[in-house]
């Protein structure tokens, strides 16, 4: 399924769904800072052990990668496993959603005032 993704100047884009299935030994992908890495061949070499990488397999490991405070050497190593970019689907802004929230708030307030007056 990964062969038919749109490419932009040779850069491959993967969706979260594409990445998610690569979550096992010998087939492990990770997302770090919106970039996708195939780290299948790195698992055994990782100084922090393969367990932690497998736990993050198929997912966004940005937070755990940063939490560890990896060295600049570690960041450079990333490059050799780079396979493409995460296709980020930005959230669409829905003004109606906020309008609906305000309407609900007004209704609650009116009902509370009425209740206070009649009880
Ligand atoms: C492909 C991505 C990764 C690369 C290239 C990488 C590389 C490295 C390298 C080179 C070190 C040695 C220390 C350093 O230079 O900073 C290290 C240590 C470590 N890494 Fe990673 N790492 C990656 C992803 C992760 C992730 C996602 C986690 C956590 C879930 C993690 C957890 C650790 C831990 C706990 C250590 C410390 C090991 C120790 O000091 O005993 N790493 N990593």
From TrEMBL:
Keywords: Electron transport, Heme, Iron, Membrane, Metal-binding, Transmembrane, Transport. This is Cytochrome b5 type B. It is found in: Membrane. It comes from Nothobranchius furzeri. It comes from the Eukaryota. Residues 11-87 form the Cytochrome b5 heme-binding domain. InterPro entries: Cyt_B5-like_heme/steroid-bd, Cyt_B5-like_heme/steroid_sf, Cyt_B5_heme-BS, Cytochrome_b5. One of its GO terms (cellular component) is membrane. Belongs to the cytochrome b5 family. The keyword Metal-binding applies. Transmembrane segments: none annotated. Pfam families: Cyt-b5. GO terms for molecular function: heme binding; metal ion binding.
């Amino acid at each position: 399924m990964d062969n038919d993704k749109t490419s932009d100047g040779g850069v491959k884009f993967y969706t979260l769904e594409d990445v998610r299935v690569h979550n096992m030994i010998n087939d492990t992908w990770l997302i770090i800072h919106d970039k996708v890495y195939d780290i299948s061949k790195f698992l055994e070499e990782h100084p922090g052990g393969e367990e932690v990488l497998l736990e993050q397999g198929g997912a966004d490991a940005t937070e755990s990668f940063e939490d560890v405070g990896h060295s600049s050497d570690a960041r450079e190593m990333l490059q050799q496993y780079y396979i493409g970019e995460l296709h980020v689907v930005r959230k669409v802004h829905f003004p109606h959603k906020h309008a609906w929230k305000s309407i609900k708030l007004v209704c609650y307030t009116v009902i509370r005032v009425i209740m206070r007056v009649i009880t």
